[in-house]
Structure formats: structure tokens, C-alpha cells
Amino acid sequence: MRQIDHFLVGGVPAASRFSDIMDPNNGGVQGRVALGDKAVLDQAVAAAQKAQPAWAAMNPQRRARVMFDFKALVEKHMDELAHMLSAEHGKVIADSKGDIQRGLEVVEFCCGLPHVLKGEYTQGAGPGIDVYSMRQPLGIGAGITPFNFPAMIPLWMGAVATSVGNAFILKPSERDPSVPNRLAELFLEAGIPEGIFQVVHGDKEMVDAILDHPAISAVSFVGSSDIAHYVYNRGVAAGKRVQAMGGAKNHGIVMPDADLDQVVNDLTGAAFGSAGERCMALPVVVPVGDDTAEALKAKLIPAIHALKIGISTDTEAHYGPVVTAQHKAKVEGWIQKCADEGAELVIDGRGFKLQGHEEGYFIGPTLFDHVTTDMESYKEEIFGPVLQMVRAKDFEEAISLPSKHQYGNGVAIFTRNGHAAREFASRVNVGMVGINVPIPVPVAYHSFGGWKRSGFGDTDQYGMEGIKFWTKVKKVTARWPDGGGDGSNAFIIPTMG
Length: 497
Ligand code: NAD
What we know:
This protein has two domains: 2-246 and 462-477, Aldehyde Dehydrogenase, Chain A, domain 1 (3-Layer(aba) Sandwich); 251-435, Aldehyde Dehydrogenase, Chain A, domain 2 (3-Layer(aba) Sandwich). Helix content is 39%, strand content 19%. It has 16 helices and 21 strands. It has a seven-stranded mixed beta sheet, with helices on both faces. A hairpin with a 2-residue loop joins β4 and β5 (129-137). The longest helix is centred in the N-terminal third of the chain and has 20 residues, at 38-57. The radius of gyration is 25 Å and the shape is globular. The protein starts with a strand and ends in an 18-residue tail after the last strand. The chain binds nicotinamide-adenine-dinucleotide.
């Protein structure tokens, strides 16, 4: 059976525990990944400690050149990586390429790191005194990542952490571990020194070892909220810098003046694309007014029926299977729950079978109307191809829904009214806002991060927030006395008498 091991310097110890890698397209097991422990982490940390000082001392443009070469290598291997990713995750190839591409954009940002690492300088802060600051790496950092973006999220963290001079240890999701290992190989090929980008695989045992390890200064986590909160608390208690991004329940507000054809097009992609397994998916739509709701529903139903579900290599498919049988059962459980809670089940995606792939983890697109805020299925993240319609009577009610929700990752408003959009963006209590943009993931030179239970810690991912997270600022106050005896002639060229 195919086995994925840790990506370490100095050989890989034999593992005694493993996790199955499932085949979402066909069901069943396609391989296994080694689950590491503290001893594996100690080996990674020792290699990181050995390599990091020289890497940090290298001038920043040389580290940037590694990022340039890495970017070129990933582009060269794009097809191979996308197929590897789709085979374990289940998302269609075009989506896998998007996953890799969005990560590469952060690598591209890191190619300009000499510029962003520049410090600040004040000349003459006092008599003969200058003050300056410099950004220095933390030493060793770790990243713990979810299954749903196995290329993008490791690159959000790993590219920024390493380019500024840290050694980075990645603990990816055990569900789709192959791409992270391949990225580590490509980093080495691009010239990153051994020990600067390593991968350890594992479950809670490895996560706890990372959180408790005294040599690891910072931990960046992305995953579900309860675990994000746990990671944040345990890491901070151990004196580390921690950022922990959590789950989401993003709302799309549809104003009465919105272009409904555009909304339907955007919504079907944002609610059902990647089988809804995106933290920036739009699983809740909020039409403002019953007329808007009825008009939207009338257009949405045929658009949903027209969606094609297929295996991840089917280039015609809009989306593929969900990641595991357990996740499929969980999503179908939420569909039942939402129906039991009294919502109108307009389209039921349960029981969907793809011919020739009957054991695959497919779920048909599902639409609910008349979902209300007291329902558990509204309060919690479903993370599947399920769209819940919550009707709002007016703009004020619409803005209050995402603002009061426990999650605050992303939100979108669809309107032709600039004032309403501006008001919404300024007042809504959510971290990332789209105006006529359904999945507002900021570009790499801005930063990514949600609010409330979608993000614990002070800094966002990538962009300048990422640079801040992965560096510490040293402040230098320097006084250079004139050295000229009584100080009156310090700048006169000495003469020979
Ligand atoms: P998850 O929380 O199950 O796993 C995330 C990581 O935590 C994995 O590496 C996993 O091995 C580890 N882990 C699992 N159980 C653990 C435990 N008990 N203790 C310590 N570590 C543990 O998340 P997932 O199912 O892989 O990913 C989906 C979730 O991630 C969704 O909730 C989604 O919204 C969220 N997500 C959030 C963002 C964001 O930026 N806010 C981005 C992507 C995904």
C-alpha cells in the first residue's frame, strides 16, 4: 500500500501508527500516512535548529531568489500537483489548480521580501542619537493545516515563515498529505537548505507535541473552531505566538436591486463549488424582502438542477465528492437536522449516486428555504454542498444576521446601490467583505483573516500581517558621540600641525 512518511532531514523513523488515506471518488482506502510523535518532532526541531541561523543570516534577496525558483518549479509541476491533490481531496482539477495558484500568489509576494523587511529609521531622535528598528525571524515556527486547501494554506504560512528567515515545520491534514510532501521536495530543489521546510505528519499527539515544544516560537493554525480555540489557548499558555483561524458560516446578502442572474451564477459556484468544503464558501443566502426571495428561488432551482457532479478528473463537473465517508455522513446528518428543525427542503441532495462510482462520497446540491436563526443547522458550520436561505425583511435585519452570528469569516452583499454597499462594508461585524464578489479572499499583498470564532489571535495570514506574525521587531537606540575632545571640532579634518 502507498505510504506517506514525514519529510525530515536524516532519515525517517519507522512509524507504529498510521491513518488511512481515503479515495473520495471511489470509496475505500488508497494509502496510509504515518502518524508521528514527539520523537519525530524532536528530530525535525534538531535539524531546524542546525539550519536556521545560516538561513537567517543570508541576505534577503538570496532567500527571495529561492522563492522565485520555487514558484517556477511549482508552475512546472502544476498538472502533477493538481492531480495528486484532487485524488486525495476530491475537488475537481480546476479547483485544485486554484488551490495551488492562490498559494503561489503568496510565494510571489515573498519574492519582494527585501522590500517588506525594511525597518524604520529616525535620524536625530536626540543629540547624536538615531533610533531604528529591524524585523528579525523568530527562529522555528510551525504550521498546522486543514484538509480543504492542502497547497494554499501550507504556502500561506510556509512561504512567509521561511522567506523572512525562519525554519518551518508543517503538520498538514492527515486526509490529504501527499501535496505538502511534494511541496517540501520542490522547496529543496529550489535551493532551500535542508531543515528549513520540513513536514511531520500526525494527529492530536503531534499537534500537542508542537504546542508544548520549547524550541518552537510560533504556531499558525487553520482548521475548525473548537480545535483552533484549543490550539490557541494551549500554545499561548506555553508562551508561544499563536494565530488560529477557525470555521465559518458566510452569508450572502441579496438586495432587491441586485442583478439576480449574476447572483445565481455567483451563488451556485460559491455555495456548491468544491462541494462546499471552503471556509469562504457562501452557505447562507439572505434575500431582502419576500419578492426578492421568490424571484431568487425561481432562478436558483433550475441552476442547481443543472449542476454536474463528477469525479475529480471530470473536466465538465462543477464539483466532486466530499473528503471522507464520515464527512459525508456528517453533512447528511445536518440536512436531516435542518429538515427536522422545520426548514423547507427545496432540493434534497442525499442519496445521490454517481454511475460507476457508487461508493464515492458524493452529495447532491441541497437547498433549504425558510431557515431561521434559532436553528442549530443555521448556527453551526455544515461544510458541504448545502445552501440555506434565511429571509430578511429589510437591510437592517440582513446586516444583523452575519453580524450576530458566532462566526465572522467572510460575507458578501449583492447590490447596485453604492451607498448600501458602503454602509454594509463599514458596519458589518465580519472580517472579510465582498461587494458583488461572492468569495472575497483578499489578494496576497493584503491579508486574510476572520473575526469572532473564525479567528483567534491578533494577526492575519500573509501580506504585511503575515510578515508581522513571523518576525519580531528589534528597536535600536544609537548614540555616537563626536569623539572630538571638547566636542567643538569633531567634523574638521585633522591636520598635521
Ligand atoms: P480540523 O480542525 O479537523 O483539522 C485541522 C488540523 O487540526 C489538522 O491538521 C488536524 O490533524 C488537526 N487536528 C484534528 N483534530 C485535532 C485535535 N483533537 N487536537 C489537535 N489537533 C487536531 O479541520 P479540517 O476538517 O481539516 O478542515 C476544515 C475546517 O477548517 C472547517 O471548519 C473550515 O471552516 C476550517 N477552515 C478555516 C479556514 C480559515 O481561514 N478560517 C480556512 C480553511 C479551513
